[in-house]
Specification:
This protein is about 35% helix and about 25% strand. The protein has about 475 residues and is an alpha+beta fold. It has 17 helices and 21 strands. The chain is globular. The strands form five sheets. Strands 10, 11, 12, 13, 14, 19, 20 and 21 form an eight-stranded mixed beta sheet that branches. Among the domains are: about 1-155, SPOUT methyltransferase, trefoil knot domain (Alpha/beta knot, 3-Layer(aba) Sandwich), CATH 3.40.1280; about 225-330. Bound molecules: ligand 9D3. The site of ligand 9D3 has 16 residues, from strand 5. Ligand 9D3 binds near residues 91, 115, 119, 140 and 146.
Amino acid sequence: MVFHVLTLFPEMIRNGCDNSILKRAMANGLIEVHPVDIRQFTQDRHGKVDDYPYGGGAGMLMQAQPVFDAWRSLQDAEGVKKPVRTVYVTPQGKPFTQSLAQELSEEEELILLCGHYEGIDERVLEEVVTDRVSIGDYVLTGGELPAMVMIDAVSRLIPGVLNNEESAETESFDNDLLEYPQYSRPEEWHGRRVPEELLSGDHKRIRNWRLERAKERTREFRPDLYEKYAARQEIAEILLGHKKENAYMIDNLQRGVAEILYTAGDQVIASNPGAGVIELCCDSTEAGRELLAHLPEDWHLILHNFEPLNEILTKEYGMEVHASCYQSVYTQRVSLPVAHKDIRRFPMEALPYAVENYENGDENYLRQRIQKGELFAAYVDGEIAGFAGMHDDGSLGILYVDPKFRRLKLGSSLASYLVNKALERGGIPYAHIRENNIASLKMQEKMGLYTGAKKVFWLCRGKSGQMK
Ligand code: 9D3
């Protein structure tokens, strides 16, 4: 990832990168940070870059010319893929969140524009800016610290920037809850003992204690988050009555990746923004219509489990049924044995191998799966012999085993590996299998996944049925 930072204070950016993790990432070529000094681009003889605002008011504004020329110097540079996303850091922007950090980490190159004084002439912003982002509701003296905050948050999501130990903690399911309190040696300090649950060695008890403390803290310090968490859990609880039919919705609610749009009893419409999917669970046409009245503005993929809705969605909403699938669900909570030991994260270098061998091998989708650490490779003698991964909605899939290695039961090892991953995240392991894929259904059943009585349907509108 290459960050270009347009600023009047390039030193602040250089100094901001002076920490061990970012330094190491730069040394390893994983990120590049290039401050661009806007002042170098002024045409004013005295190096002036600011002037008074028309209409009066306090302070000075950065003028359009130097900002524009600094920006254009990047667009003209060789090797820059155009158009590059240009983020203006400003108190008048949308809030910077983890999901925006995730989205930005998928870009190859970013331009961050830092304002100073009272801001920047609006006309140049209209010409170059693609996003306006604020880091919170407080007033700083300039955009350099916010730019550094964004560089830091985005960089740590780039594969390889954190080592395994550092990234392990980010893997844990956050689910909109604040983290539980933690303790290290000694067992007693200033007369305060480490909570005995943590010393018990009983994993279930420890997990439970941590969850309760996390809920407590969230309720106290972030009632906004807690309310959302509680609402999701409550509905997930109801939907569990038909676990095999509702698995996708329960999983997404439990993991906190779907946000409830509207609900009436056990009828739910939710949005999974990360996957770009609108999800519905209902069991009558009437309820389906009620849910569809709460569709947001921007959607192109719908997942639901009530067949008669297909007619409404195709006739009245101009959608197309992209896939009719059986839903296989792993209903227990205990992890499965994985016979093949050498399964690891799929390396980006092997992307062409995945593209070549996955039937539905959309390169961008696979690249994104690998980048998010959602694709896993089985190795035999140091060579990739197969792979499997999680889709954006959390379903298990993308399974491939090299014909040379078909004797080794790698397929079921990979599938079990995914089941265990899904369990670790606190969701329900489930897979969507096209209705004509009998072989895959058989394998799922052999592994102890159960197929629900209702099929699920993927519908899309506009561009092809690829996710995102
Ligand atoms: C005219 C009133 N001021 C807005 C409240 C002007 C102004 C103050 C401070 C304009 C820019 C700044 C400097 N801040 C940033 O550039 C900035 C920022 C911030 O101050 N808080 C949170 N996020 C951000 S992102 C950029």
